Amino acid sequence: MKSLVLLVVMVLLCVGLAQTNQGHVLLSDVGLYEQPASYAELTFTAPGDLPSALPSSNSPIDVSFSIHNVSGAAGAYQWSVILTKSGQSHVKASGTATAPAQGRVTVTKSVAMACVGGRLQVLVRLARPAESVDFWVTCPQPNRDPNE
Questions:
Q1: In this predicted model, what pLDDT tens digit does every residue of 81-106 receive, in sequence order?
Q2: Beta strands per DSSP E along the chain
Q3: CATH architecture of the domain with range 39-138
Q4: Distances (CA, A) of 16 to 2, 6, 12, 13
Q5: Which residue ranges make up each domain of the chain?
Q6: What is the pLDDT of residue 8?
Q7: Do 67 and 97 contact (CB within 8 A), yes or no?
Q8: What is the pTM assigned to this prediction?
């Protein structure tokens, strides 16, 4: 009976040690523990609501995106919204958002750029980890003089 109690106590001590940082290091050294995945996921909040065309040449574009922090600690993410037309890029908004461990943060911005004819790329970029999502909108055609 004493040996059974001693065995249970030893198992409980080992299980308790395995839950500590030092226990993780020991288990990792013998191949019995692996650090959980840690990454950030960048998505548009409502991709179906993204515009495909601008109603006027100076229409603001509402951009809403989420950062999902898949890690065991809170993370601060530097982001930017960049508009690109004809090879010319312009940072229209930027900032930092903090997402809790295993949590999400949503950022919503309204950005505008004069856009006549052609297409405009709307890019949301994280600095670290380097991730981006984008979409394209069609710009209105220039007004034609009916007397031409």
A1: 999 999 899 999 999 999 999 999 99
A2: 39-44, 61-70, 75-85, 88-99, 104-111, 119-126, 131-138
A3: Sandwich (2.60)
A4: 21, 15, 6, 5
A5: 1-35, 39-138
A6: 72
A7: yes
A8: 0.73
The per-residue pLDDT for range 53-67, each reduced to its tens digit, is 999 988 999 999 999
CA-wise closest residue to 14 among 6, 3, 23: 23
Q: Which of 143, 81, 80, 86 is nearest to 120 (CA)?
A: 86
- Contact (CB, 8 A) for 45 and 106: yes
CA 145/CA 148 separation, integer angstroms: 6
C-alpha distances out from residue 41 to 45, 46, 132, 133, Å: 12, 15, 10, 10
Question: What would the two tokens of residue 50 be?
Answer: 């993204």
Distance CA 115, CA 141 (A): 9
Q: What number of other Cβ atoms are within 10 A of residue 65's Cβ?
A: 21
Residue given tokens 């226990």 in the structure block: 23
